[in-house]
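Bit of a strange request maybe. I'm writing a small parser for structure token strings and I need a real example to test against, not something I typed by hand. Could someone generate the tokens for this chain?
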Amino acid sequence: MSRWLLLLRHAEAQAADAAAADFDRTLTERGRAQAHQAAQRIAAAGLHPDLLLASPSARTRETAEIVALELGGIGRTLAPEALYLASAPVLLSVLQACDDAAGTLLLVGHNPGLSALARELAAGALHGSSAAAHAATHGAAHGAAHGAADAAALELGLAAMCRLTVQTPSWRTLGAAVVRAVTLG
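Reply from user aminoacidic:
Good idea to test on real output. This should exercise your parser:
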């Protein structure tokens, strides 16, 4: 059974400020435009998330809200505290606990954990799995796809997305072994 996992880094946020907590930083005008563009890329791929998971920080929630609104709503949205600045192993455990009724998951989060998870999951598909693996880098600000990526170099910039095609009957088995294709953009 094919499933899709979308890993989306939050869009551009206000600069860090000694007076404001990192958790409370909101998106800039450019960041809001980036979030709209991310939603358009999801729609253009013909995907509609059944479940949206977002870090509870202001910038990730705002990114997630813009994407959900642009896509006409998403069935269910969760923002567990564990996702704030989470490591790859924490993100993976949250994804593995998702309801199998969801065929497409969207996770909006932070680096370095989100990029580390993308690298970990993409490794099998990008390094010689028997499945057809495709990776293209999409410049969020320029809207251009370019070049082939390799898992070790995979780094999600602001509002960048990694789309993984997963062949598994259950999210519980999510890992590099079940990833069949990777697309960045």
